[in-house]
Design brief:
The protein is mainly β and 163 residues long. It has one domain: Sandwich (Jelly Rolls). 11% of the residues lie in helices and 47% in strands. The strands form three sheets. Strands 1, 4, 5, 7, 8, 9, 10 and 12 form an eight-stranded mixed sheet that branches. It has a two-stranded antiparallel ribbon with strand order 2-3. Strands 6-11 form a two-stranded antiparallel ribbon. A hairpin with a 4-residue loop joins strand 2 and strand 3. The structure holds fe (ii) ion (FE2). The site of fe (ii) ion has 4 residues, from loops. This is Redox protein.
Amino acid sequence: MFQLIPYEKFRDTPSVRFFDITIANSNARDLVFHDGAATSPNNGSEGCWQFYMHAHQEDNLLALSGGRTFYLVNLSWKQPFHMVRLQANGDILRIPPGTFHRSVSDPDGSLVLNQAVRAAGANLETEFRVYNSAEIPLLLKATSQSAPPPRRHGFEQFQLRVA
Ligand SMILES: [Fe+2]
């Protein structure tokens, strides 16, 4: 299952934020900037959702600025489909290997740091392959209107903030 990981905030004031965001076993870092309401990976040509899925990498995602919604599908979970809000100053989202994931930024965009954990055998070409749900019947089914709706995490807070 995915996890939301809190971290130590030494100082959290309007003018200074000073946090320990260490993921102890991380051995790779990537940074993903979305300018505006970008979708990553983008939708397929026929409009179906596309996803990343890492066979040998755990993602640990922290929003440094802005907000982003992650769509997670793991066919081995009892409830396979989840939507998780990430926002600056919020928890780190840990996505285990084998989980299909895509993200959509808020209208003002977002900057997300990934403190990844790559296992032996990780190959950048295969780890960052894009999977089109149009070609994977079980993935398409899990995200279709006829499937149980996704479980939503962190949206209550978001709604309060924009109210
Ligand atoms: Fe990823």
